[in-house]
């Protein structure tokens, strides 16, 4: 037993990872950059992926790198890289949001030194059922939202 208890995958299965342990934080980010990126990705004509939007924000789960192991099946590393693209808000956007070019599932934000902030709706238990956190969801970046008055407290 290696402690892996969750899987992460886009809808088409082109991008997959095993996740060890529970996420460090469960959140819905309401900042303009996250929500605008998600809306941009999910409005693409070929979108058929797993939506990242939740209660007006973007559903994320935060994992540190030692706990994320990408195991993309049936593709080489080069093929897997070709299935990932990025969206960033404006020229000064700090982080690109990764998504699968095949199905459109927003994967999340990858921070080289820190870890991965993953689409929480694309995380599954070992039995294939959707992951649901036993901890409460933190609504973050409320003051940078499209409409902060509509963000749950």
Walk me through what this model shows.
The protein has helices at 32-42, 77-82, and strands at residues 4-9, 16-20, 25-29, 53-54, 57-64, 68-70, 84-87, 97-100, 106-111, 115-119, 123-125, 138-140. The strands form two sheets. Strands 3, 4, 5, 7, 8, 9, 10 and 12 form an eight-stranded mixed beta sheet that branches. Strands 6-2-1-11 form a four-stranded antiparallel beta sheet, with no helix packed on it. The model has no long low-confidence stretch (mean pLDDT 83). With 153 residues, it is mainly beta. 11% of the residues lie in helices and 35% in strands.
By secondary-structure content and strand pairing, the structural class works out as mainly beta
- Tell me the β content: 35-45%
Number of strands: 12
Main sheet properties: 8 strands, mixed
The H-and-E topology, N to C, reads as EEEHEEEHEEEEEE
- Give the N-to-C terminal Cα separation: 39 Å
What secondary-structure arrangement, pairings included, does this model have?
Blueprint: E1 4-9, E2 16-20, E3 25-29, H1 32-42, E4 53-54, E5 57-64, E6 68-70, H2 77-82, E7 84-87, E8 97-100, E9 106-111, E10 115-119, E11 123-125, E12 138-140
Parallel strand pairs: 3-12
Antiparallel strand pairs: 1-2, 1-11, 2-6, 3-5, 4-5, 5-10, 7-8, 8-9, 9-10
